[in-house]
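Hey, I'm writing a tutorial for new members on how sequence and structure tokens pair up, and I'd like a real worked example in the thread rather than a made-up one. If someone can provide the structure for the chain below, I'll link this post from the tutorial.
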Amino acid sequence: MQIGGNVTYKPGVKMIKINSDPTVYVIANGGELRGIPSEEVAEELYGSNWNTQIDDVPDGFFSNYTLGSELEFASQFDPASEEAGAWNIGSDKDLQSYTLITISDNGYDDGASVAPGTAIRFYNAGSDKHTASADDGSWGTGTLNSGEHFSRYFDEDDELDFHDAYDSNLSGSINLE
């Protein structure tokens, strides 16, 4: 799992403020904070109980967000749209998904070509035990029973050749470029 920083509030769901500043902020996609200028705007956005939907965030976590422009009107922010746009917890952290290499009882997926630093997940979709072990012995997944997986980051530019320790006829490669 990639480390991308502290988790921020889901956009559109809550409002926040920090302890040392009385400004109340809505949370937009990308972890952007937009100040709410008045109680009237807050009530238009979040209803008559808007003030119960504010969480205080310690000052030290304020740096996890970026400051955007202050709202002038409620029409400049749609909580439901912001929430719908945040489909993934990593969306404001620019986290990358892993590349999946599936191992079946007949072999590996065709060779993957990925950028260095991308996570590679080896998944055993077969019914037998399998491994993905570097031909040069520098890394290996260990035994993967059916349904198990193993993830690893590869940082170097290179072609990585691997094989199954349980079946010498199964081999594969990853091209890092």
